[in-house]
Amino acid sequence: MRHRAKGRQLSRTASHKRALLRNMAASLFEHEGINTTVAKAKELRPYAEKLVTLARRGDLHAIRQVEQKIPNRAILTKLFKTIGPRFASRPGGYTRIMKLGHRPGDGAEMARIELLAE
Question: What pTM was estimated for this model as a whole?
Answer without folding.
Answer: 0.93
